[in-house]
Task: inverse folding
């Protein structure tokens, strides 16, 4: 566990040191759970967003995009259920005065049981080698079975208590499990209470006429209220989707774990409108399609798992999370929900406007059902960044820190380095940069010994270093060094574009999805 915590601390400090993420308004000591994306972070984030957008919108002829406003008519949030039910159960520790999410305390406890089971499974897999059958071991080894069954029964009880609004039982569970304040160890808890997560604001200049508004807590409602506008103006035929990326705001009670749980974050959501009765087919389609999108980035199949919800929200008839193995354990990365016709019907009722689709094949009107995919951009960022950060021991006994980002997402694709700052080498390097910058984000660096510059680019996650040396003057060749293998090839300057393109082109990566 200590090792995992160290790894996570490294992630946070590396993100700051190499210009990926800074605490917001740091000169004023920051703002809790709000972060700024720095010069490299903004590029990585943009690339993740683009990779999502292209795979969803460009690659699906029946999905179109939208950019709805953050501020929406307040009735939106009444209709969606957020005003009445967008609550988290909170609990305070009477000694430390710290506030926690009761469900997160219990989930963390359950995750520890899961990790214990995983440890046993891993040990057994080493012991049995090729012959190891994980599924059989999970269902026959008494210790693993005990851990997993305890975990499942805790989560099931919590799900039921929260679903029934039985907050006293949530507290009872915390006490029975002897869960302590993670920071102080105190078990002196208050009752569990509900807390609405929406941020309020005001529209209008004068205090008496100002209208109370909310900052949107999800982007999805912007899609629902525009359903008919898009359908009619785009002549969309069911099944079709509307995709959107953008900021969402939640006054999270416990905001920790860096950019995993923020108060201002970005979502990438898609609502897929289908014929009632066909939603389960599309739900399965989107579960597979979205998992394949994640897998295409090459962060390792074992880092993902589905968590099918036992207890469904009142509007859903199926729901699953894609969980990722973050440095603090498996946690939700993306949600895929079959939301029935709940949202469109609710907006119809509250707005008194018909939000139905006329199906020309069936010659009738109906309210479409919706399958939603919703992934947090910041959580995607964290999954990619944390998994890519490696400390490697080299053959000569030294170590290097390398950020093995999927090259398609790397902020800078190549760094161009003149071996020395003289003899015309910088001029050649700058000319290479001037040629390549039309196609890629490239950087130029002439400071320090070339070995140190390689290390810096490794830590920044740059897939290629191009070194201009004295031979370059003779024969217009350079060396190209590959970040992951550190292998260097001598190549013609005129071939550089093609070599880089073949590695980083979004098209090549998108073509891998589902293969
Ligand atoms: N429209 C559905 C919806 O908003 P959600 O599970 O509340 O569902 C979807 O959020 C995704 O948004 C999550 O899977 C997560 O990746 C991301 N997310 C939610 N709250 C977040 C927060 N406070 N900070 C960062 N990401 C968050």
Result:
């Amino acid at each position: 566990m200590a090792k995992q915590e160290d790894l996570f601390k490294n992630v946070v400090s590396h993100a700051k040191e190499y210009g990926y993420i800074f605490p917001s308004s740091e000169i004023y000591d920051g703002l809790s759970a709000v972060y700024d994306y720095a010069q490299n972070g903004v590029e990585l984030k943009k690339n993740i967003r683009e990779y999502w957008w292209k795979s969803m919108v460009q690659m699906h002829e029946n999905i179109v995009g939208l950019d709805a406003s953050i501020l929406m008519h307040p009735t939106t949030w009444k209709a969606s259920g957020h005003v009445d039910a967008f609550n988290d159960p909170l609990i305070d520790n009477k000694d430390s005065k710290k506030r926690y999410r009761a469900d997160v305390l219990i989930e963390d406890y359950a995750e520890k049981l899961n990790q214990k089971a995983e440890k046993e499974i891993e040990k057994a897999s080493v012991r049995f080698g090729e012959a190891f059958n994980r599924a059989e071991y999970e269902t026959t080894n008494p210790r693993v079975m005990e851990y997993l069954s305890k975990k499942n029964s805790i989560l099931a009880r919590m799900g039921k208590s929260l679903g029934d609004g039985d907050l006293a039982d949530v507290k009872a569970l915390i006490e029975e499990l002897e869960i302590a304040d993670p920071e102080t160890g105190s078990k002196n808890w208050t009752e569990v209470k509900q807390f609405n997560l929406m941020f309020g604001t005001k529209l209008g200049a004068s205090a008496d006429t100002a209208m109370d508004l909310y900052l949107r807590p999800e982007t999805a409602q912007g899609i629902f209220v525009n359903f008919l506008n898009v359908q009619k103006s785009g002549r969309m035929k069911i099944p079709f989707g509307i995709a959107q990326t953008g900021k969402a705001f939640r006054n999270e009670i416990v905001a920790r774990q860096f950019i995993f749980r923020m108060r201002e974050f970005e979502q990438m959501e898609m609502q897929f409108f289908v014929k009632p009765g066909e939603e389960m087919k599309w739900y399965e389609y989107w579960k597979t399609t979205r998992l394949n999108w994640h897998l295409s980035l090459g962060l390792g199949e074992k880092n993902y798992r589905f968590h099918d919800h036992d207890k469904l929200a009142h509007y859903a008839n199926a729901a699953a999370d894609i969980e990722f193995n973050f440095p603090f354990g498996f946690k939700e990365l993306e949600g895929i929900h079959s939301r029935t016709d709940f949202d469109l019907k609710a907006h119809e009722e509250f707005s008194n406007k018909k939000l139905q689709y006329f199906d020309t094949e069936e010659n009738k009107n109906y309210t479409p059902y919706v399958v939603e995919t919703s992934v947090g951009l910041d959580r995607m960022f964290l999954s990619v960044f944390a998994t890519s950060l490696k400390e490697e021991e080299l053959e000569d006994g030294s170590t290097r820190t390398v950020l093995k980002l999927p090259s398609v997402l790397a902020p800078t694709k190549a760094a161009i380095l003149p071996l020395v700052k003289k003899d015309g080498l910088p001029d050649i390097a700058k000319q290479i940069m001037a040629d390549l910058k039309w196609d890629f984000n490239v950087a130029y660096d002439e400071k320090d010994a070339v070995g140190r510059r390689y290390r810096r680019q490794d830590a920044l996650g740059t897939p290629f270093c191009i070194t201009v040396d004295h031979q370059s003057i003779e024969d217009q060749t350079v060396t190209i060094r590959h970040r992951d293998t550190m292998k260097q090839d001598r190549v013609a300057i005129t071939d550089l574009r093609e070599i880089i393109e073949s590695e980083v082109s979004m098209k090549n990566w998108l073509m891998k999805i589902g293969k």
User: Anything to note?
Assistant: The pocket of glycyl-adenosine-5'-phosphate is lined by residues 218, 220, 250, 252, 261-262, 265, 267, 269, 332-335, 372, 374-376, 378-379 (CB under 6 Å). The domain at 2-86+197-386 is CATH 3.30.930.10 (BirA Bifunctional Protein; domain 2). The first strand starts at residue 21 and ends at 23.
